[in-house]
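Batch queue: ligand-bound targets. Current item pairs a single chain with flavin mononucleotide. No template structures supplied; prediction is de novo from sequence plus SMILES. Inputs echoed for audit trail.
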Amino acid sequence: MVNLRTTIASLNLENPTILASGIMDEDAGSMLRAFNNGAGAVVTKSIGIKPKPGYPNPTFVELEHGILNAMGLPNPGIDEFGEEIIKLKKSNITVIGSIFGSDVKEFLILAEKMQEYGTDAIELNMSCPHAKGYGLEIGTDPKMLNEITTKVKAAVEIPVFVKISSNVSDIVKIAQAAEDGNADGIVAINSVKAIKIDIEAKMPVLANKKGGYSGKAIKPIGIRSVYDIASKINIPIIGSGGVTTGEDAIEYFMAGATAVQIGSGVYYRGIDIFSKVCKEISTWMENHGYSKMHDIIGVAVQ
Ligand SMILES: Cc1cc2nc3c(=O)[nH]c(=O)nc-3n(C[C@H](O)[C@H](O)[C@H](O)COP(=O)(O)O)c2cc1C
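Prediction returned. Tokens below.
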């Protein structure tokens, strides 16, 4: 029997599939459903200091090979969302609290509150492709990313992961800035900056014009990103971008990821995608003579 257990920093996960931020994680009930359908851990939606309504519609459009969204980080604010985490933590679930802020001070307040509510780790979202003032402005600046990571790490005891973007000229520099700030892991990648034009209306489809592209189409970009950083850093990498099957996950592991997050895949294959992907990983490993995760991580990195 294949052992899918994996360890990321101090988190011991039953399996390496994690619900990605912003997908079916509005409340404790939906995160619990992901867990009950096989997720090894769940990431909350990205939470800020104050309630935020998000952008006007349309915010979401399904394209041929992926999903384009510009939700605008809608969220109830940390104080209200805290109740959902407290409810969720009554079940024995590994919860990673995703946070976004406009400066160091906001990230610190949010991280401390997430820890207080009982999350098992923090994910710093510094890579949202469409959040003005909260996303890539921070995530493309290694100095600022390093400062936020360093200060958050000094303020909390739980592991801190930094979610980075492929929309940068040198992803290695960004990942190293996070590692130098004592991050416990890197999440690569967030959705990719993109635009869809309605040629009849002669205008962008999304109200925000630009959005983040996710799903199958971005998998090679995610794989490339993980591959590029795997040999340059010594902290675990969580792969994200286009995972819909067990073989997609294996590709991420071979590129150097210790676990994968699944977001858009939930729309394609349903909430039980986590147990389906785990079964597919096990079958592939069995058929290829592998008995533990450790043996495939990074094998393709040359
Ligand atoms: C509708 C939607 C909302 C998202 N919201 C967030 C978010 O709040 N915070 C975040 O870090 N990533 C967010 N993401 C990005 C996903 O967490 C994930 O990193 C990305 O979609 C790539 O993975 P996938 O191809 O499996 O979807 C969102 C993605 C989608 C499709």
